[in-house]
Amino acid sequence: GERTGMGKTVQHPLSWSQGGCSPPVILLIQEKTGLFSNFRGAGHLAMITLLALSPAPEERMAFALQGYKVLRTRFYASQYLPLAALLLADWARGRDLDGVAARAEEIYRRMKREHPFLTGAEDSVFAVLLALSPDTEQAVVDQVEVCYDALKHPFGTGQYTQALSHVLALGEGSAQEKRDKVLGVYQGLKAAGRKYGAGYELG
Predict the structure, then answer these.
(1) 26 has a pLDDT exceeding 90
(2) Between the CA of residue 66 and those of 4, 28, 145, 148, what are the distances in Å?
(3) What pLDDT digit, counting tens, does each position of 1-14 carry?
(4) Distance of alpha carbon 185 from the chain centroid
(5) What is the DSSP string of the chain?
(6) Residue (of 96, 84, 156, 172) closest to 120 by Cα position
């Protein structure tokens, strides 16, 4: 939990302290899930970070497990679903979790209809976030598609452009405005000599 150096006691970033006796977040995940659980999959590092930043990680983990149980009635198990569950538990707390999960499932289905070969398990995370929008499921997916079309010319088509379109659909402003901001950052990085591609870096 703690490291000492130069006369200072430093709290380990992956642990939390309640009187100095609480275990690291990694151990919390291990204690609450099985050895081959999807909670230890692709989104493991992101979950560790989010829990470590929480003032009450045990409570947050309990809500995540509850959210996961709800999402599993709507989605196939995957390594990305636990992260979606954590976000669902965080942002939909106090709301009808099954109702939000049902919206997420419908949004995911419509995403899959638009891009059957690009949409995968990782998009369940975006579907959950987009399900929190007050707009209808079709309006949400339409906004994603407008963003995708706006991004195609500078970045091409593919799963990473699609992932970025999901992120942009969560924000305010027109698709063109959001695309121009992304392009400005992208070109600024290149002008500064920073290596930044148009592949996985976008997603």
Answers:
(1) no
(2) 37, 15, 31, 33
(3) 444 444 444 444 44
(4) 21
(5) -EEEETTEEEE-TTB--SSS-PPBHHHHHHHHS-TT-GGGSTTHHHHHHHHHT-S-HHHHHHHHHHHHHHHTTTS---SSHHHHHHHHHHHSTTS-HHHHHHHHHHHHHHHHHH-TTT--TTHHHHHHHHHTSSS-HHHHHHHHHHHHHHHHHHH-SSHHHHHHHHHHHTSSS-HHHHHHHHHHHHHHHHHTT----SSTTT-
(6) 84
Query: Is the confidence at residue 48, as pLDDT, over 90?
Result: no
Beta carbons of 31 and 69 less than 8 angstroms apart: no
Residue 200 neighbours by CB distance under 10 Å: 9
Alpha-carbon distance 168 to 148, whole Å? 9
Residue whose token pair is 């995911």: 108
- Tokens 């198990």, located at residue: 77
C-alpha triplet 201, 142, 148: angle, nearest 5°: 25
pLDDT band at 35 (very low <50, low <70, confident <90, very high): low
Condensed to tens digits (0 to 9), the pLDDT of residues 71-116 reads: 999 999 998 999 999 888 788 777 788 999 999 999 999 999 999 9
Q: For residues 111 and 138, give the distance between their C-alpha atoms in angstroms, rounded to a whole number.
A: 10
Beta bridge partners of 196: none
Is residue 39 predicted with pLDDT exceeding 90? no
**Residue 24 structure tokens:** 């690291």
Alpha-carbon dihedral 56, 61, 67, 70, rounded to 10 degrees: -140
